[in-house]
Design goal:
With about 450 residues, the chain is α+β, with helices and mostly antiparallel strands. It has a domain at about 20-105 and about 375-420 and about 435-455. The chain is about 35% helix and about 15% strand. It contains 14 helices and 15 strands. The longest helix is centred in the last third of the chain and has 25 residues, at about 375-400. It is globular, with a radius of gyration of 25 Å.
Length: about 450
């Protein structure tokens, strides 16, 4: 038997004609084809006495590639420039640092987000996401990010005994894009209606015009061209938030909290089996032992927007179950408010899909969200926006250029299989040819992605 896991080799320096990050090059070529660098650069005015050596739009796009590849700090950007074969004139870590600390003030960052929204609209049109009449579903949720330094501005203790940030984001359910994310201190309230409306406003601003039409505060309902529905957990079950949705012609589906009225309604139907209908899973199959009932006629809903419904779900109680809306030794009760039409069972299936947001947040945490490398709040807010930009660029690439398991792969899988694939550089005449390593399992996926990039207009 031979138990060694590696072959014996002699290691020397001085290698050439071999590159890595081949998949990241494809991602960068995709961004260039979309005109992302130009769109961002046009929103970043030149400041200072000297002309910048590096175009700031290009710097931001290359920082997105760095984040997609697993980078977490400004110094990681220099790994893209090794050999200078694939990426054009990569900036230094100090230039990237200055970009975040000096060039991306709140006003400029807002303009950069506008440029990013323009490119998003192009992607949605190409993916045919702006067509159809089905609602565009948005999911809002917050998460805790630990910070081990009290020197960073805008941090604070959180309810779990930790310290750091408590950002809140809004995601597009169909694509997993991060439409907006608000950087908040650790002690920011989970049920802050003002914060919920702030991320909703910014998310709507990121939607293409045919989708966003009629969804500004106070807009005429007749201007709506595509319905928008937002889902939240119990933190969004506040009058101010749901009425804010109503004012923006946005539908809502928010998890119910345990109140006297809700508990009273459950008490009245708990033993009335005529009220309960079998619950369904996301794939439409029946969920054994679970049932759904509508109780809109029982509690007083006069303080809620017109058409608000209350739907309750029950499941057999199991060890470790979360807190229930109603005390019971047999069932766990859970429910939500919504202004959407449809059967109670269908609305229950729809609202439970809010759990997708957990996957979107985990994807961000695997792509730079866990690190805030600056002391200043504005710089860290710009870093958060860049993390979201990078995640969305990857989602666009998966949507338009990949297929099969790679189209839904998590960040770690993409790095292992795609982003850091090796290749050999061959020069023929004036052409530079990139030959992916023979036998690389996902070589065909890289080649197919480049063919699809070439079709983007």
């Amino acid at each position: 038997m031979h138990a060694n896991s590696t072959r014996r080799v002699v290691v020397e320096s001085g290698g050439d004609q071999v590159v890595s990050h081949v998949g990241l090059h494809a991602l960068g070529a995709f961004a260039d084809r979309l005109g992302l660098g130009d769109a961002l650069s046009a929103r970043m005015p030149m400041t200072g006495k000297r002309v910048a050596l590096h175009d700031r739009g290009k710097v931001l796009v290359q920082a997105m590639l760095m984040l997609a590849g697993g980078g977490e700090t400004c110094s990681d950007i220099e790994h893209l420039g090794v050999g200078d074969e694939l990426f054009a004139d990569v900036c230094s870590d100090s230039t990237l640092y200055r970009t975040f600390t000096e060039n991306l003030d709140p006003e400029t960052l807002g303009q950069v987000k506008e440029g990013f929204a323009e490119v998003r609209a192009k992607v949605w049109r190409r993916a045919k996401l702006t067509k159809g009449t089905d609602p565009v579903v948005l999911d809002i949720d917050a998460t805790l990010i630990a910070v081990h330094s009290e020197n960073k501005q805008g941090t604070g203790p959180n309810y779990k005994g930790g310290f750091g940030f408590h950002p809140m984001g809004c995601f597009a359910d169909s694509t997993g894009e991060v439409l907006s994310m608000l950087l908040r201190p650790g002690n920011a309230g989970a049920n802050d209606a003002e914060d919920h409306l702030a991320v909703l406003n910014e998310a709507i601003a990121q939607l293409p015009a045919p989708v966003a039409a009629g969804h500004g505060e106070g807009d005429d309902p007749g201007d709506v061209r595509r319905p928008v529905v937002v889902r939240t957990d119990g933190a969004g079950a506040t009058y101010d938030f749901v009425w804010g949705c109503f004012d923006r012609n946005v539908g809502f589906s928010v998890t119910a909290r345990a109140t006297v009225q809700v508990q009273g309604a459950i008490a009245q139907i708990a033993e009335d089996e005529t009220r309960w209908k079998p619950a369904r899973r996301q794939d439409g199959s029946r969920r054994q032992g679970a049932a759904v009932a509508e109780v809109t006629d029982l509690p007083a809903l006069s303080k809620w927007p017109p058409g608000t419904r209350l739907i309750i779900r029950r499941e057999p109680l199991h060890p470790g179950a979360q807190q229930s809306l109603f005390p019971s030794l047999e069932y766990r009760y859970w429910g939500h408010y919504t202004d959407q039409k449809g059967t109670p069972v269908a609305r229950d299936v729809f609202h439970r899909a809010h759990a997708h947001v957990e996957d979107h947040i985990e994807r961000l945490k695997g792509s730079g969200l866990l690190r805030f490398p600056f002391t200043g709040h504005d710089a860290n807010r710009a870093w958060l926006a860049e993390v979201c930009f990078a995640a969305d660029l990857v989602r666009w690439f998966q949507l338009l250029c990949l297929a099969g398991t790679l189209a839904a792969a998590e960040p770690k899988a993409l790095r292992w299989r795609l982003w850091h694939a090796p290749a050999r550089i061959v020069r023929s005449g004036r052409a530079t040819i990139l030959r992916v390593l023979d036998g690389w399992p996902d070589a065909e996926a890289i080649l197919r992605a480049h063919r699809r990039i070439a079709l983007i207009t």
